[in-house]
Amino acid sequence: MSETSPKLRAELAGIPTYKPGKPAAAGGPVAYKLSSNENPYPPLPGVMETVTAAACSFNRYPDMACTGLMDELAERFGVPVSHLATGTGSVGVAQQLIQATAGPGDEVVYAWRSFEAYPIITQISGARSVQVPLTPGDVHDLDAMADALTDRTRLIFVCNPNNPTGTVVRRAELERFLDRVPGDVLVVLDEAYREFIRDPEVPDGVELYRERPNVCVLRTFSKAYGLAGLRVGFAIAHEPVAAALRKTAVPFGVSQIAQEAAIASLRAEDELLGRVGSLVCERTRVVDALRGQGWTVPDTQANFVWLRLGERTVAFAEACERAGVVVRPFPGEGVRVTVGESEANDIFLRVSEEFRKEA
Questions:
Q1: Mutual orientation of helices 239-248 and 89-101 as an angle, nearest 10°?
Q2: Checking DSSP bridges between strand 128-133 and strand 334-338, what pairing results, if any?
Q3: What pLDDT sits at residue 164?
Q4: Cα gap 339→350, rounded to integer Å
Q5: Are strands 153-159 and 128-133 parallel, antiparallel or unpaired?
Q6: pLDDT digit string (tens) for 140-165?
Q7: Going by fewer Cβ within 10 Å, which terminus of the chain is more open, N or C?
Q8: Given CA atoms 278, 217, 95, 252 in this order, what sign does their dihedral have?
Q9: CA distance 242 to 344
Q10: Which string of b and e fits 112-143 if b means at least 16 CB within 10 Å?
Q11: Half-sphere exposure of 110 (CA within 13 A, CB side)
Q12: Around 77, how many Cα atoms within 13 Å sit in the side-chain half-sphere?
């Protein structure tokens, strides 16, 4: 037997592993999962019935073009169908974007820390990550990002609100940044948490895309819509970009069940907005309580909060787990904590108060 092994791409060496939020331990003391920014509510009215009906035909391939969902999205956002593309969550579409724009020798620019999939999908493509540190307030440093652009830059991610800090960039600074970006460089506004924004100065990326051919907007059904387990996201972009995304999509990647659930969820937006409003109120309660305890908490416009703990990060996460909630630690930096059920939030707040007193 030969001792050699198949040759694999050198770019794959050293790719960091994506770390999903730790689940609650089955049968253990942990009762609540606040580690993955999931929606704590069950599916919206009518969605479960739709999914159940769609499941009767999963012996058949799904509609590869996602025709029904594309039509629904086109009407919902007032865009041509040709400006839409779907994928397996917004992260799947993000990977398609890099496949369509960047390869060996090219550069992808994004803030850091930001969504942890960015360096993974960039390295898979063979491109080079250019990570621009956040400001001391954990916000995108758009001036520094613009300064980091070179003739090798092919794509820029702006995560707004930013994951894991929850911070946002506002209209004036974002438009000033876009004015500095060359027209042949694609700017991706990753708006996975768009529905939770209450700051009126944060622009809707869809409005920016309408006037700028090099702007693409990412959205997902995983967060506010509560379809994280079904994996469906989409992009809104001008036709050349959207067409490239459809070319790079995995055939039949979005299941028929996911397509039908997304359509039903769009049609239940009144109920959705009520649920999101409740989570935003709970977010305010959590942030106010943390600040009252003496924590420095960045203003968050997402469904999570960020605590910069440095070397105490892992100890804090372990204390939360012992108390019955799982949070998402970024060792050496901080923890991201989803705003979940009020009971779960209460446990987290008790831990944060005790931890701060002990520290």
A1: 100
A2: unpaired
A3: 98
A4: 14
A5: unpaired
A6: 999 999 999 999 999 999 999 999 99
A7: N
A8: positive
A9: 40
A10: ebbbbbbbbbbbebbbbebbbebeeebbbbbe
A11: 27
A12: 25
DSSP label at 134? Answer: P
Q: CA-CA distance, 333 to 312, in Å (whole number)?
A: 8
DSSP string of 219-238? EESSSTT--GGG--EEEE--
Q: How confident is the model at residue 100 (pLDDT cuts 50, 70, 90)?
A: very high
DSSP letter string, 76-93:
HHT--GGGEEEESHHHHH
The pLDDT, as a whole number, for residue 6 is 81
Helices (H), the chain: 47-55, 67-77, 89-101, 117-125, 142-147, 171-180, 205-211, 239-248, 256-266, 269-292, 313-323, 342-358
Say which residue the tokens 């898979």 belong to.
124
Q: Which two tokens stand for residue 258?
A: 């996911």
DSSP string for residues in 266-323: HTTHHHHHHHHHHHHHHHHHHHHHHHHTT-------SSEEEEE-GGGHHHHHHHHHHH
The per-residue pLDDT of the chain, averaged, comes to 94
How remote is the C-alpha of 234 from its chain's centroid? 12
Phi-psi region of 289 (alpha: psi -120 to 50; beta: other; left: phi over 0): alpha
What CA–CA distances, in Å, run from 339 to 96, 278, 306, 354? 30, 10, 11, 19
Question: What pLDDT score does 11 carry?
Answer: 73
Specify whether the CB–CB gap between 53 and 70 falls below 8 A: no
Rounded Cα distance, 150 and 152, in Å: 5
pTM value surpassing 0.70: yes
- Could you read off the pLDDT of 44-65 as tens digits, one per residue? 888 888 888 888 888 899 999 9
pLDDT reading at 2 higher than 90:
no
Peptide bond into 164 cis (omega under 30): yes
**Residue 222 — pLDDT band, cuts 50, 70, 90?**
very high
